[in-house]
Design goal:
The chain is of the alpha/beta class. Helix content is 31%, strand content 25%.
């Protein structure tokens, strides 16, 4: 009987009067995230864009080809991840998953299980984190050498800033005890190589890692896209791509093999940068290339972040800057001259100070640069004031809750007060772009939202106190961070990030309202459907 009534309703609507549209959604709790943060119940879509946003009166005004009765469910703008690694996420299917490993014996076990399935002649693994092990000291490669004496092994730390490799890989890379590197560390013990290479030292190994084929990359992009759509992401930021991978992405989008929208940062490679400085900004409906990603320092977990004073758990060590202030100024001037955005990875307080000083020295004469600091993780109190409306902190709330149990060991209680300080950063800059840094953290935007608001790790609200709760964001701010502010940080606020007339019809339907449900239930939210350009790209119900 209900089906007959629905068919009759659709028939009556199809023969009614009104402007023709492709889709009309009604009976919804729609968070527009417009300037007034209006809530409405209906909207219409035509040619992939919103053409009307309002109430149930739209049912009489428009003649839709398709109608969705949302039955009171919540609808939000398509979520945007402001810092991620789409290609890397997809390529991880070819690597052993070492997340949640318990120590080196467990790592070796996982590698052997991976090899039984794949039988690679070059073994790659990703996700190990000694901070999660009983023994928090850096591992060495002794167990790898015993298990894999003749097959090269390269294991990427969870933050992507350190390799643990076996002796076979060291031999192939022609590295010995006398090899030196600037801006990184080759960890030795009693003069002997341990197999651990941090930050720039990783480049010594990169030359022996086999290139992934075009077919593997295409497969990777498509697999990663599906994960994004399943999690309600309609736009992601690729935080560092070569020219070749950018154009591969572009070709896949143009041939409709890839639909997701991407804001792609160019990696700090001279060839890639020179190409885009000559050719200019590359912009399509799905791809935006107008920024460069560089690294000022490494990561806190691997003690590569550049600090102003010694690490609390390693006296005499302050990490290292990965480029000089002069080099930073040179690339900043080049990008400013060509109207490109500069997005700099900065973790430690010394790195953040250097980047902020360099930015402010260049940006005085530029009206709307929107240059970003990626992570802005550890800040000295006196340096917050160098943020302003020209410099955007691009932060990852899950980093705070992932690091909360060991960060104090690295930097001590006093410096920790200026770390992961998202509310303080927001007060000085006026907005925050929120991301996950996936696959370093979980891709799920509800975990990002939850971590930003609760300052607790997902699943641990009953046993752990909030981490520096004074720096929690409101739900309103967290939502803006994964929608409108993330779009603004990519110069795309006029085309996405809110449900408004003229913008792309990218939106998500949720099974519960994340703005109203108890905060501890937010991470249980499920995506009912993800819609891109007014068309369903993922659904578990419709």
């Amino acid at each position: 009987m209900k089906q007959h009534k629905l068919l009759l309703l659709l028939l009556l609507m199809s023969i009614g009067c009104g402007e023709r549209v492709d889709l009309l959604v009604h009976n919804a709790q729609v968070y527009t995230v417009n300037d007034n943060f209006d809530k409405v119940s209906a909207f219409a879509v035509k040619n992939g864009k919103f053409v009307a946003v309002g109430g149930e009166e739209l049912l009489e005004k428009y003649k839709p080809a398709n109608t969705v009765d949302a039955q009171g469910l919540s609808i939000y703008p398509g979520f945007i991840d402001a810092h991620s690694h789409l290609l890397e996420l997809g390529l991880n299917q070819f690597k052993a998953d070492l997340k949640n490993s318990l120590g080196m014996n467990h790592v070796v076990q996982k590698l052997k299980e991976h090899q039984q399935i794949h039988n690679h002649n070059f073994i790659m693994g990703i996700g190990w984190d000694q901070n999660q092990w009983k023994d928090n000291s850096y591992p060495d490669n002794k167990a790898l050498n015993i298990a894999f004496p003749n097959t090269p092994v390269v294991l990427i730390r969870v933050d992507g800033h350190a390799y643990l490799v076996n002796n076979k890989a060291i031999e192939m890379a022609m590295i010995n005890e006398n090899t030196k590197i600037e801006g990184g560390q080759i960890i030795r013990e009693k003069g002997k190589l341990t197999g651990l290479f941090i930050d720039n030292a990783m480049d010594l190994i990169n030359g022996i890692i086999p290139e992934f084929s075009r077919e593997q990359k295409v497969n990777a992009y498509q697999a990663a896209q599906e994960l994004c759509f399943e999690n309600g992401l309609t736009t992601v930021t690729e935080a560092g791509l070569s020219k070749e991978n950018i154009y591969l992405l572009d070709s896949l989008q143009k041939s409709d093999l890839l639909k997701i929208r991407v804001y792609a940062m160019i990696e700090n490679d001279r060839k890639s940068i020179d190409h885009f400085m000559d050719s200019g900004i590359h912009k399509t409906a799905q791809l935006n290339v107008r920024s460069v990603k560089i690294y000022a320092d490494g990561a806190l977990g691997s003690r590569g972040a550049a600090l102003k004073s010694d690490y609390s758990d390693q006296k005499g060590h302050r990490g290292s800057l990965l480029l000089s202030k002069d080099s930073l100024k040179q690339i900043a001037s080049l990008l400013a001259k060509n109207s490109f955005q500069l997005n700099t990875h900065a973790i430690g307080d010394a790195a953040n100070q250097m980047v902020l000083e360099a930015y402010n020295g260049v940006l005085d004469s530029i009206e709307d640069p929107r240059w970003r600091i990626e992570h802005a993780q550890v800040m000295s109190p006196e340096d917050f004031q160098m943020f302003n409306d020209k410099i955007i902190p691009s932060v990852q709330p899950l980093h705070a809750t992932s690091d909360m149990n060991w960060a104090v060991k690295r930097i001590g209680i006093k410096r920790l007060k200026g770390a992961y300080a998202y509310k303080d950063l927001l007060d000085w800059s006026g907005l925050l772009a929120l991301g996950t840094d996936f696959p370093v953290e979980e891709i799920n935007p509800f975990q990002t939202f939850y971590a930003a608001v609760s300052r607790k790790p997902p699943g641990a609200w009953s046993s752990q106190a909030p981490f520096q709760e004074k720096n929690a964001l409101s739900r309103y701010e967290a939502l803006l961070g994964i929608t409108k502010w993330a779009a603004y940080a990519s110069f795309e606020e006029n085309e996405k990030g809110s449900i408004e007339v003229g913008k792309y019809a990218d939106f998500v339907i949720l099974d519960q309202d994340i703005m109203r449900v108890a905060i501890d239930r937010v991470i249980d939210t499920k995506i009912v459907a993800t819609i891109l350009n007014g068309k369903i790209v993922f659904s578990n119900r419709l």
